[in-house]
Amino acid sequence: MTLPNAPPDIKALAKELRAGHRAALARAITLIESRRSDHQAASRDLVQALLPDTGKAVRVGITGSPGVGKSTTIDALGMFLIERGHKVAVLAVDPSSARTGGSILADKTRMARLSASDHAYIRPSPASGTLGGVAAKTREAMLLCEAAGFDVVLVETVGIGQSETAVCDMTDFFLALMLPGAGDELQGIKKGLVELADMIAVNKADGDNLKRANQAAADYRSALHILNPRSEHWHPPVETYSALTGNGIAKLWQKILDHRTAMNAAGDFAKRRREQQVKWMWSMLEQRMLARLRTEPSTRGRVRKIESEVADGRITPSLAAEQIAEMLK
Ligand code: GDP
After folding, report:
1. Which of 84, 153, 205, 287 has the fewest CB atoms within 10 Å around its CB?
2. Which DSSP category does 234 fall into?
3. 291-329 per-position pLDDT tens digit
4. From atom 26 of ligand 1, which residue's Cα is the shortest distance away?
5. Hey, whose CA ends up nearest to atom 11 of ligand 1?
6. Which residues have C-beta within 8 Å of that of residue 38, sequence separation ≥ 6?
7. Domain range 1-53, its CATH number among 1.20.1050.10, 3.30.1180.10, 1.20.1250.20, 1.20.5.170
């Protein structure tokens, strides 16, 4: 979508967005994804103006290897929620999309029923290069969706290292999807993922897979036992389900609600959101300062020179960092 040359009228856009106009939402997200500095300034104003209308959605992160059934699950869970009166937004964090020229996540063709629904909004990952950039834009897109009345936001990512942390840092509940039958090697029971997951769900528990799915679930359960849960108020459950038949989808949603109730009762829900906000601020600040050092004519040349001195082994990285930090003063 192209934007007019002049930054849009923020007040009018905010009003249309609050009224739930999809075209306004799409335009607003395009604005926050724009690299133009006047667009970025306008989008900061827009998000700030909409802030009181944000924060009310259930924010769920969903991860899993390609083929595990993420899009089938989102389609099934999304339709389940829409039938119960919810409005569902689907976003994605895919740091590789900039390189590959297209996102495989939150692709409308992969979520046939959901993409045809007026109560769903699906937006692929912004192609913004760095993970930090992609994550920042997705977080803002999430706020815009909330202001537009979407009360469930599903954020999809692939099981690649840092993108999972980024999605976990912007959601209330982090769901890790697994395949049946790979229990012997416990795929995904990398320490990192288990520390992030609020639930492990073994998909494809149907037909011939049923037994293997139950076995995988039992293996994950025993693996989780020996690890410390992230919160003393929530022990991540391990469930089996089938995105294809829809069996178990209701149970997954119930667990997400149970988690919310438990975290609210313990005061951990507000705490998680507060911590996320502050973390977000620091990560944006980090990005801005680094971008400034690398792009501003007054520092760019010196930074490059120091960089090559480090590469050549002429100065230590720590001395170089000191010299670059001096430039920020
Ligand atoms: P993604 O790459 O993680 O988004 O995975 P997809 O949702 O595209 O699913 C990958 C393949 O697994 C597709 O052929 C799906 O039809 C199939 N699949 C997804 N969910 C299920 C399920 O619950 N049961 C079975 N048997 N197949 C499934």
Report:
1. 84
2. B
3. 888 888 888 999 999 999 999 999 999 999 999 989 888
4. 204
5. 67
6. 7
7. 1.20.5.170
